[in-house]
């Protein structure tokens, strides 16, 4: 969901968070397993369930949509305006005027 210019930085942040979380689970799990025994996986199941609910409710469907359409969806949700080149691209099915947009994202 990032522009091409921001992808390397986003990949590094995402990868770093992933490995830090793996490290934390590796440190915490032996103590949890010793204390909770066979029920230690319930905590991870709850975390997975909360993540599933968050993705289901908050993250929009992007199947069969172009990058520009996805960008428009996020711009509409964040009340921003997408500027492509010299001309403005109106938000798809937008009920608000472009003057009420708070930020401009240039592509």
UniProtKB/TrEMBL annotation:
Q: Does the keyword Glycoprotein apply?
A: no
What the entry lists under SUPFAM superfamilies is as follows: MFS general substrate transporter (SSF103473)
Pfam families from the UniProt entry: Sugar_tr
Q: Which UniProt keywords apply?
A: Membrane, Sugar transport, Transmembrane, Transmembrane helix, Transport
**Which residues lie within the region annotated Disordered?**
86-107
Major facilitator superfamily (MFS) profile domain boundaries:
1-63
Record's bilayer topology term: Multi-pass membrane protein
Cellular compartments annotated: Membrane
Report which superkingdom the organism of origin falls in: Eukaryota
What InterPro entries is this protein classified in?
A: GLUT, MFS_dom, MFS_sugar_transport-like, MFS_trans_sf
Residue ranges annotated as transmembrane are 9-32, 38-59
The protein, known as: Solute carrier 2, facilitated glucose transporter member 5
What gene makes this protein?
SLC2A5_2
């Amino acid at each position: 969901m990032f522009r091409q210019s921001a992808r390397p930085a986003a990949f590094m942040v995402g990868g770093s968070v992933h490995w830090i979380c793996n490290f934390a689970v590796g440190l915490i799990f032996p103590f949890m397993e010793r204390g909770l025994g066979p029920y230690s996986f319930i905590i991870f199941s709850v975390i997975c369930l909360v993540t599933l609910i968050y993705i289901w409710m908050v993250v929009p469907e992007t199947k069969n949509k172009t990058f520009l359409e996805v960008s428009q969806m996020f711009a509409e949700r964040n009340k921003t305006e997408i500027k492509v080149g010299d001309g403005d691209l109106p938000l798809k099915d937008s009920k608000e005027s472009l003057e009420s947009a708070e930020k401009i994202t240039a592509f």
